[in-house]
Every structure is written in structure tokens, then in C-alpha cells.
Amino acid sequence: MNDPRFFARADESPDHLFYRDARLVEHIDARAIAAVENVYRTWIPPQSRVLDLMTSWVSHLPPDVRYASVTGLGMNATELACNPRLDHRIVQDLNAEPTLPFEDAAFDVALICVSVQYLTRPIEVMRELARVVRGGGRAIITFSNRCFPTKAVAIWQATDDAGHTRLVEEYLLEAGWSDVRVFAHVGRGDPLYAVVAEREHVDAGEL
Ligand SMILES: C[S@@+](CC[C@H](N)C(=O)[O-])C[C@H]1O[C@@H](n2cnc3c(N)ncnc32)[C@H](O)[C@@H]1O
Questions:
Q1: Residue 28, Cβ density class (10 Å: 0-12 exposed, 13-18 middle, ≥19 buried)
Q2: pTM above 0.85, yes or no
């Protein structure tokens, strides 16, 4: 995991160039979107403070569930402005700056949907998620088998769906997350995998 070649990309130009133009499209098919929504319905309690990392104009949160707040961080301001679920919007390149601009324990749940393959510093980002999610909170990382190939990291492109699942588990465990569970929704159309992890409670004496 320490080998920088794992995180090389065909297009090493700054990410803001690639994400300059808004893409107001769906990146997975309707069944896979329904599977994401179902995962969120199961694992995000109503009234949670939600962080949707690497988001765009859609968050795939169940429309009938109310959350205390939804904060979105992504690369394109127009996409974020078009996302009706977001209460707060931040544009930040996580490959240039993985430190998140939030207080410790500011969220109950953090999400990354169909985007984890673009992180060149994934463990730093997962550590930051562990910092900004409260003890007992969750991370939910979903992905399919599609990507922008020039921007996905080499280690992602070198393996298959099962390998992607193990890789995401590894990222989370390495960053201090625990109780990692994997769910697969496969059939016709785009597959959808979800990796759900828990943020351990930390006693005051351990801080
Ligand atoms: C395939 S889209 C998925 C968007 C959204 N999560 C969804 O489910 O439709 C990939 C997203 O990753 C985000 N992204 C890619 N590279 C990023 C980076 N370096 N820092 C922050 N976000 C990034 C982009 O803003 C883009 O919206």
C-alpha cells in the first residue's frame, strides 16, 4: 500500500481540469442507484448529520427520509449547486488536500458513492473520515464496475470487483475503522457493492 505506483494515473494533470465542466449525468444505472438508496435507508438513521464526500448533483439519499444536515464535498461547484439534498457545499480536491475542513466528530455518517477509485491518498482520506465521524458512527462506501479510466488509480484498474472490495476494506482497516461489512447487489445491469464500517467509540482516556 506504500508503493506510489499503486496510485499512479494515466492522467496526472490536476483534477480540477478534468472536473471543470459539470457532468449532470447518472454514473450508474437505475437498479444500482436503487441499491445505493436501499443501503442508505438501512444504514443511515433519520436525523443523522451526513457527509457526502466526492459528491455531485445527486446524493442517492432516500427522498422520504429527513436528515439533520447533509454536507457535500466535490470538485465541481455547478454540480454541487444542482444537488437539492445538500445543506452545505464545499469544493475541494482531496488528492491535493486530503485534510477535511470539519471539526472532530462533526458527522454521524460519511458516504463515498462510485468515486473511491479516484483517490490517490485513500488512507489519509479514510483517516480524516474517522476523525470527523463521531464514535459509533459509520462510513459507507459504494462502487460499481465503471470508472473514468484515465483518472482511476492503477491498483483499482489492476483488479476486479472482488479485488476492489478487498481494497476498500483494506483502506478502512488501515485507517482505523472497524467492524467492516460488505454487501453485493448483482444481477442484470451495473453491480453495486457497499462496504460499511464502524467508527469505534474512544474513551476520553485514550485521546
Ligand atoms: C463518478 S462521479 C460520482 C459522483 C456522485 N458521488 C454520484 O454518486 O453520482 C465522481 C465524483 O468524484 C469526485 N472527485 C473526483 N476526484 C476528486 C478529488 N480529487 N477530490 C474530490 N472529489 C473528487 C468528482 O467531483 C465527481 O463528482
A1: buried
A2: yes
